[in-house]
Amino acid sequence: MGTRIKLYEYNTDYLYRRTLDNLDKLEVDNSDHHYWLSIQTDDPEQISNQLLDYFDWHPLMIVEDEESNLRSKFQEFKNYLSLLLVLTRMDRNQDIINESIQFILYDNLLITIEPEGHGIFSWVISQLHAKSVINEHGTAMLMYYLIDAVMESYMEIFEHIDYYLDELEEEILDGDDQDSIEKINHINKYLLSLKKGLWPMRTAIGSLTRGKHAMIDEDTQKYFHDVYEDMSQLNEMVELYRGLCSNLYDSHLARVNNRMNEIMQTLTVIATIFTPLTFLAGVYGMNFVEFPEIRWEFGYAMFWIICIVVALVLIWYFKRKKWF
């Protein structure tokens, strides 16, 4: 854990990457090259404070370390703009955590402050090394591709949720659903956290599509409309999967109720069969002296024959009525 600083210098047919020990070694000129300063850290607030002094940023640029206060937002200043995106995900312990990715865009410099070892931008980095179409454009277009990579990471999250809900549905249908309610509540809680994070993110990205920005030309701004549409789709997917969770919850309760009804039906049938048998046993268990049947030679056997016949008749009748 710690901080890793990498500087990518590129243009159409050129890419040079170097690792910096500290910001004092940062050199950015005003040539036709573009620069991406990628900072991966486990303490974004500390890095923001260092960058604030180095680049003379506005104090509102500081990223708060408290997860509960993290919120996606867009800010524009005189010669740079800032976009803070808050990512909601689950860790290995199934705990919900919030992480921030901050983009600071200058005319020919893009700074990103990212979580340590997240790997979301791997594809974009590989495209830079391959000298693809990304190299042909400036840092605003690079920022678009990086934000698009964030959207793709959310798509992967929803693919996992979809797979998880399919498995949960099969468990419920197969009857192996003892802890289904707990699982449904957990995934529903995660979806609610996603919803709380995606709405501010949609608003922040929407700010890039409205008005004019000095660091983003009109052609590049059109690409951010595509990201904004992706954000709208993600918000719709949250509502879709929350609806699926609600349906699974109803299916689980319906299955539990059906199972309870089956148990009650079985117990009712058993009780109904034994009701006439209990009556017969009660009659012949009375302490009267004169009981003609008691003196019969086959009275005891006859009693059992009558009980068995009555029980079989009731069972046949219930079967015919399809009561069990």
TrEMBL record:
Q: Which GO terms describe its cellular component?
A: plasma membrane
Q: Where are the transmembrane segments?
A: 267-286, 298-318
* Stored CDD domains: TmCorA-like_1
Q: Where does the protein end up? A: Cell membrane; Membrane
What's the superkingdom here?
Bacteria
Query: What does it do?
Result: Mediates influx of magnesium ions. Alternates between open and closed states. Activated by low cytoplasmic Mg(2+) levels. Inactive when cytoplasmic Mg(2+) levels are high.
Query: What is the name of this protein?
Result: Magnesium transport protein CorA
Q: Which organism is it from?
A: Ignavigranum ruoffiae
- Where is the organism placed in the taxonomic lineage, from the top? Bacteria, Bacillati, Bacillota, Bacilli, Lactobacillales
